[in-house]
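--- STAGE predict ---
source: upstream dedup step, 1 unique chain passed
mode: sequence only
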Amino acid sequence: MSKWSVVHTVTFLQDAYMIKSYLESAGIETLIPDEFTAQVNNFYTTAIGGVRLMVRTEDLESGVALLKEGGYINPENSVTDEEILIVGADSSTDMTCCPFCGSENIGKRNTPGMAMVILYFLLSALFPIFRSANKCFDCGKIWKFKKIRQ
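--- STAGE serialize ---
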């Protein structure tokens, strides 16, 4: 009996079928264990962590290499935990541009705070308690301004 490993996870079942046929055309046997769960109700896929596509453990490296070659896995769609930098600010600081590259192409990024998560579970209600950070779309840095006391 051979062991199976997850080679890729997708949100939609039709994407899993496309990747499955791509890998099987190269001779790699695949398995979709969440297939019927996703067919019954496609909203369950986020609850179970996506539709998993599995290959035999001995075929894992060649499967990943094939998916990279086919464009199914690339660095742009991988999720990374970005570091939030702290930038000192006083009354003369221009907060409308990026302090690193000077670009005005910035936006706010809101992430839920721990207080919101606790309130959500205790009261079963969603409260808009977010931590706000700025993100530059040109250089990709994320920062918060912290007031400097004088």
